[in-house]
Design goal:
single chain; 434 Repressor (Amino-terminal Domain); 5 helices; elongated; DNA-binding; Cro/C1-type_HTH; Toxin_antidote_HigA
């Protein structure tokens, strides 16, 4: 099933950090922000799903967690596409047919 057809949005990467990663590591949010090299506010905004995971943050998270940036970016893209597919009106966009 594609992200656009799901009834529930894909999980924001901040929720994964908040609910799974940080508790498993046993680190405070302050210590995590310090290790990531970002402000506490930046991390808090991501954890509260108020800010997206940018490519720069995905690089940081990928190194920090040891799983690379693509996982974090793919989660953010899936989340964003789901929401945008409900906001963007495509009714007046016609598909181009190849010659």
């Amino acid at each position: 099933m594609t992200a656009e057809r799901r009834k529930r949005p894909p999980t924001h990467p901040g929720a994964i950090l908040r609910e799974d990663v940080l508790p498993a590591l046993g680190l405070s949010k302050t210590e995590t922000a310090r290790r990531l090299g970002v402000s506490r506010q930046t991390l808090y905004d991501i954890l509260r799903e108020k800010r997206p995971v940018t490519p720069a943050m995905a690089l940081r998270l990928g190194k920090f967690c040891g799983n690379g940036p693509r996982l974090w970016l793919n989660m953010q893209v899936a989340h964003d596409l789901w929401h945008e597919s409900r906001r963007v009106d495509l009714s007046k966009v016609s598909a181009h047919k190849a010659a």
